[in-house]
Write a structure and sequence with these properties.
mainly beta; OB fold (Dihydrolipoamide Acetyltransferase, E2P); 5-stranded mixed β-sheet; 1 helix
Length: 84
């Protein structure tokens, strides 16, 4: 946990997704890791998750602080998402 210059809690994390989908009639394995950040109350709640927990996340995409790469800004999450 870190704090922004405005004093808000912020938590930097990495999210990993793995699944299998069908594309053009063939199964395809999908794997993705993305950097993410939660700020404010969301950061405090994210801090309660353990490494490896499964959750559903919502938010918006922006650039990383250094301008390189994509960063998911988490605005809400469900620690027990429904099966997809």
């Amino acid at each position: 946990m870190r704090y922004t210059p405005a004093g808000l809690p912020a938590l930097d994390l990495s999210l990993r997704h793995e699944s299998q989908v069908t594309e053009a009639g063939h199964p395809r394995r999908v794997s993705l890791e993305i950097r993410a950040v939660g700020i404010g109350a969301v950061a405090e709640q994210l801090g309660k998750l353990a490494v490896g927990d499964t959750a559903g996340f919502a938010g918006f995409l922006g650039s990383h602080r250094n301008g390189k790469g994509v960063l998911l800004h988490i605005t809400e999450f469900d620690a027990q998402p429904a099966s997809l």
